[in-house]
Specification:
Blueprint (H helix, E strand, L loop, with lengths): L10 E4 L7 H14 L5 E6 L5 H14 L3 E7 L2 H11 L4 E4 L8 E7 L8 H9 L16 H11 L11 E5 L9 H7 L3 E5 L18 H10 L3 E4 L8 E3 L5 E2 L1 H14 L7 E5 L4 H9 L3 E5 L3 H11 L3 E3 L5 E3 L8 H15 L3 H4 L8 E7 L10 H14 L4 E6 L5 E7 L3 H18 L5
Parallel strand pairs: 2-3, 2-4, 6-7, 6-8, 11-12
Antiparallel strand pairs: 1-5, 4-5, 8-9, 9-10, 13-14, 15-17, 16-17
Length: 441
Amino acid sequence: MSRKYFGTDGVRGPYGGPVINEAFAERLGYAAAVWLKKKGRVVIGRDTRASGECLVAAVARGLRAGGCEAISLGVLPTPAVARAVRLGGAPLGVVITASHNPAADNGIKFFGPGGVKLTDADELAIERLLPETLISPNLASPHEEAASAYRDGAAQLLPARALAGWRVVLDTANGATCATSPAVLRTLGAEVIGIGDAPNGTNINEGVGSEHPEALAARVLKEGARLGIAHDGDGDRCVLCDELGGVLDGDEILTILATHALTNRTLSNKTLVITVQSNLGVDAAIAAAGGRVARTSVGDRYVIERMLADGATLGGESSGHIICSDISPTGDGLVAALKVIEVMLATGKPLSELRRRLKKFPQLTAALRVKEKRPLAELPQLTATIKAVEGELGAQGRVLVRYSGTEAKLRLLVEGPTDAIVRGALDRLEAAVRAELEVLG
């Protein structure tokens, strides 16, 4: 049986829609509390969306009705909530966020014991416990301790005043990291130039953040900064910008961290875990450095599951979810940035030079908004085109076609030996999609 409400990263959708509303949030909180075998204090964080407070209160009412104590942590990055679960021994953590989605959306995701995201089976079990209706009591007041503990823990990753003399541009996406990431960087001695740091409840991710790094790159060049850092709305992603204005994605960040760790013999089991979305160049770079790559389905929780299975401590996605599990149980944009800065300090090399460790295969992607997510097996023209392109590329490339787990989109990816071959293959795939699915826009 497949999950009806949960996607690759929690439940997500337009606020006020059929799923993301106070009534459903309350029912979901109750179901989660009933599912918990060990009741206790459940911590709840949120990003800066205007709908966040109402949804926090609704989830908390449900949790309390199910026998748990609900503690609001206020506005807090997703990894800070995961940290609070792990260090506080809470049986469950909840984050009200739609991550990089527009402000009109919101979502609900859970962390289990140890601050690790729930499995598909756990989420299905919670869905089966959803009650028809529910009315229950109000929520406790926010707590500042979790934010302070998160800031203190992050600042300890580098030596005191390690960034003295550094100028850093920081884009916090008008989201949950506005009060945490800049404070940590300043504690470490950096001069921080902020953008996307004026949340008003409706401007989260709006033209800023990891999904829109153009403003970051321009500001880095204007200010002569050492680097730029961009988060998404809930702070579990990291995109970087080097001193020349070049934007680094998650694949480049992971390659820098993994190859440096391999050089210093500190990469656990010599293994980096990435998803099928990552560029084939990552595999080549890690192999050349003496390591191995393990790939998973798209979704940071699948990366984490594989890391646990393989005894790996570094993994992530090209989108900028970077998991350093020896520090944080989930993706943490601030931790990722600090770990790259650590490499810069250790090597004395600028980010523009470190990024050369990854030589990417030519790659193109497309995200087509579709009216209906029909199973790919029911699309014979697309299936035949995929098979044909894969046969032509052979070992020199690959094709990935999948539906988004959080949006009504079909995602296409092609890698190959030349830009022209990749462009032609992607055009053929997109034409096949449009012949068999209704593409919106």
